[in-house]
Amino acid sequence: MLHLLCLRYTGPEQEAEPFVAAHVEFLERHHRAGTFLVSGQTVPAAEGGVIVACGIDRAAAERIAAEDPFVVAGVAAYTITTIDPGRVHPALAAVLGVDDSRVRG
After folding, report:
1. C-alpha dihedral, 84 to 87 to 43 to 29, nearest 10°
2. Residue 71 CB coordination number (10 Å)
3. Reported pTM
4. Tens of pLDDT along 4-54?
């Protein structure tokens, strides 16, 4: 499964500033583990950020999101969309672990 984790600030972006270092460590830890494939701020950045996670089930995605220091501090919240990839570009097939029947392009 693939999960799109959309982070939105619950107040002004400045309220999150004291927790940025801990949030970055949270991101780095999950990138090192291979769970987060992509993460970044939205444009405009004041809206929040987005993470693409893979290799975990929905319950694990929810647990990980709840552990984000921004969420623990109450300055942000996630919405999670779980995706069952139906068609995948060949460059992503191995990363996502999909079978050949779903590869297009």
Report:
1. 50
2. 19
3. 0.92
4. 999 999 999 999 999 999 999 999 999 999 999 999 999 988 899 999 999
As given in the structure block, the two tokens for residue 14 are 């400045």
- Identify the three-state secondary structure at position 82: strand
**Burial classification of residue 36, based on how many CB atoms lie within 10 Å of its CB (0-12 exposed, 13-18 middle, 19 or more buried):** buried
Q: Helix (H, G, I), strand (E, B), or coil: what is residue 76?
A: strand
Instruction: Classify 15 as helix, strand or coil.
Output: helix
- Going 9 to 12 to 14 to 16, the CA torsion angle's sign is negative
Alpha helices in the chain (DSSP H): 20-32, 58-66, 69-72, 90-96
The pair of structure tokens assigned to 97 is 């672990």
